[in-house]
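Narrative of activities, Objective 1.

The group set out to show that a structural description can be obtained from nothing but a protein's sequence at a throughput compatible with the screening campaign. Below is one input-output pair from the validation batch, recorded exactly as produced.
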Amino acid sequence: MDFTSFTDAFTDTPEQAELRAVLRDFLSVHATSARVRQAMASPAGYDEAAWKRLTGELGLTALAVPEEHGGMGATLAEVAVAVEEIGRVLLPVPYLSTAVTAALLAEAGAREFLPGLADGTKTGALALGDGVTMSGDGRVTGTVWHVMDGPRADVFLVRAGDGLEGAGLGGDALVAVRAADATVMPAPTLDQTRPQATVEFDDAPALRVSPEGDGGILASRAEELTRTMLAAESAAGAVQCLTMTVEYLKTRVQFGHPIGEF
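Output recorded for this entry:
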């Protein structure tokens, strides 16, 4: 079995296969082990040079953004292909968070932050914890821990309780908050390829993304989409681990035989 193609054997269209091949070629050069370790130790916490090329030359953050907003008009399936390939090599870039943020804003028709997210000049992060509430004048207060790619994000998508659940009118709202209006504190992590942050909001102005009275549907979708993309990333990483293990078993010799023979 060709384990490197295990995840794409069931899903790739010809266009997705081409995207995967282009990305795999690019990452084989720009996401070597040495480059990944260098990016982990950098002040930014991610590979800024690779990020500019992924978003500029390849346009990855624009995949699921409509063409009228500077995007490519593709689907979340293409985003998943990119997430898998980047996750396969553990390249430290804020792709998953930014692409999901852009896709959700585009789906909701919230245009304010889309151009910068689509061209990669701005990055997004998802603060989907339960500790944020929204006041009647559209301001949010609370704290969210373990926000992926939070330290360098420009905009946060935040799940905020609007206090209307008991009246049957609301549920959690999904809102966008500029990082400049939040307190962002980098958090130590074991996985140095993915920076995290604790983000505090103190009466911060917010742009409502979900429709009034949607019952928390878009906020739930944000969490489901994030989990789905993380699962795709994790599966690709697991396949890569298996591939590397099989290759090692074929080449490592002990007692005069490849250890795979044992």
